[in-house]
Structures are given as structure tokens and as C-alpha cells.
Amino acid sequence: MLRKKLQFFRPYFLRDLILEPEEKKTNPLKFSPFLFDQETPKNPTILSIEFLQNEIKYSYTVEFNRNAALKEELNHYKSI
Predict the structure, then answer these.
(1) Superkingdom, according to UniProt (predicted)?
(2) What is the pLDDT of residues 12-22, one digit of tens each?
(3) How far out from the chain centre does Cα 35 lie?
(4) What is the largest CA-CA distance in the chain?
(5) Which residues contact 59 (CB under 8 A, 6 or more apart)?
(6) How is the chain split into domains, by residue range?
(7) Which residues, including other chains, have CB under 8 Å from residue 28's CB and lie 6 or more apart?
(8) Distance between CA 69 and CA 64 in Å, rounded?
């Protein structure tokens, strides 16, 4: 189960999400939105990842729906 969840984070998922504009994308993204209530599946999904590379902490956030990335943000902080 964990392995299946980790496949979601493979770089090609994010690459395709970011590089293909909504008007050119023909296949919807395959993911299951949260089902907290009737409105939740209609809202965009937000994914945040924090990682450390060469003593610099990065925080990457992407907001997307089934068609395209709507917003992305990458911040970095010098690690202590």
C-alpha cells in the first residue's frame, strides 16, 4: 500500500501536471479527491512537499484539479 502511494510522487506526475497546459491536456489526471462532503470533490487539490538538498530546505506546493496545475510555489530557506 505504501509503495502504491509513493508512486504518486514520482517526478513524471508533477512534470506532466505542470508542463501540459489545461487547453492541451486531453486525459484527466488520475487521483482520488477527498470526500469530506459534497463540495470537496469539486475543489482543487493542494499538495505540499518539503525536502532538504545541499543544506537548503525547500518547500514546494502545487494546486491542481483533474485538468491542470492551477498554482505552484517553491520556497527555499537556508538550513541551520
Answers:
(1) Bacteria
(2) 556 666 666 66
(3) 18
(4) 44
(5) 48, 49, 50, 73, 74, 75, 76, 77
(6) 2-78
(7) 66, 67
(8) 4
CB 37 within 8 A of CB 23: no
Q: Find residue 72's DSSP bridge partners.
A: 62
Q: Which amino acid is at 15?
A: R
3-state secondary structure the chain: CHHHHHHCCCHHHHHHHHHCCCCCCCCCCCCCCCCCCCCHHHCCEEEEEEEEECCEEEEEEEEECCCCEEEEEEEEEECC
pTM for the whole structure: 0.62
